[in-house]
Write a structure and sequence with these properties.
elongated; mainly alpha
């Protein structure tokens, strides 16, 4: 019976391995363009605005590809050049004096927009129609990477459940006892099938959670690039700019339950949560983005 049990075990485990190999093939094929981008990014300096897009916020663990933080970074870079200033309420306005246009297209568009206004917040930059050119320039700096690792762990865990239960029932029907027990009653499989399930689940859990951030090496390079770009920033600038990233409290109360109006050519949700359709595609399209093995997160 032991030889027969060995064949049963080998067959089911090969099926489990083949399923996970199939998931790996799906990842390899669907992330080809993204892997090429990440490999190319290693040979150049990461753009600070692109880094702001990818990091999503100043703290670790934030969702990737958030337009609000990219806009904050652009404003802070413009303030750092001396062409803009931020007051204590988070309103950005042109700095006094004559300034040449920034070389960066996004910063140049932002400077032009600020020159027509007495002061705006980051929230207004992302919602007001007159700043649509800035948002277009900002969108062009977004890295072509999806924000989530992809739904791989759940299918692998389901495969572990199916393989464990199927292998156990197969062994029981062929009258094979559970290995290591003095009582070789096949009925023990009805209870002890959970032991192989636990073992296979640990292997399936090697896939990162679907909502975790992919491409950790690129994340580290983005964080380093942004830190370097803003190294000479005054301590209060980032705080002041971030204060204007949200709508005023009075505005929030008066518009509760109302949707924010957006032009059709603006694909990103201005609330900072991201486009729901794109987020669903990121997490449910069985797509993985990675540059250092199957490890997710920051």
């Amino acid at each position: 019976m032991s030889g027969e049990l060995g064949w049963i075990t080998a067959g089911w485990l090969l099926g489990f391995a083949a399923f996970n190999a199939g998931l790996g093939v799906v990842w390899w094929r669907r992330t080809r363009a993204e892997r090429q981008f990440v490999l190319g990014a290693r040979r150049s300096v990461v753009d600070p605005i692109q880094a702001g897009w990818w990091l999503g916020a100043s703290w670790k663990g934030a969702s990737a590809q958030q337009e609000g933080y990219a806009a904050e970074v652009a404003v802070r870079l413009l303030v750092l050049t001396g062409q803009a200033q931020a007051d204590e309420d988070g309103r950005i306005s042109p700095a006094p004096g004559q300034h040449s246009a920034p070389e960066d297209p996004a910063l140049a568009t932002l400077a032009v927009g600020l020159g027509r206004d007495d002061g705006v917040t980051v929230h207004e930059l992302l919602t007001e129609p007159r700043f649509a050119p800035f948002r277009t320039a900002l969108e062009a700096r977004r890295a072509p990477l999806r924000r989530c690792f992809g739904a791989y762990r759940v299918p692998a865990l389901l495969a572990a459940l199916v393989v464990s239960f199927g292998m156990s029932m197969n062994a029981m029907l062929l009258r094979n006892g559970f290995p290591g027990l003095p009582d070789q009653d096949p009925g023990w499989w009805t209870l002890l099938w959970m032991a192989p399930w636990a073992a296979l689940s640990l292997l399936a859990a090697a896939w990162p959670p679907e909502a975790s951030r992919p491409w950790p090496m690129f994340t580290r390079r983005c964080r380093a690039a942004l830190t370097k770009a803003l190294a000479d920033e005054s301590p209060e600038t980032g705080f002041r700019v971030s204060r204007g990233a949200y709508p005023p409290r009075a505005s929030q109360a008066s518009t509760a339950g109302a949707s924010v109006r957006r032009s059709p050519d603006e694909p990103t949700d201005r609330t900072g949560r991201g486009d729901p359709a794109q987020l669903a595609n990121d997490t449910m399209d069985l797509d993985v983005n990675h540059d250092s093995g199957f490890v997710g997160g920051d």
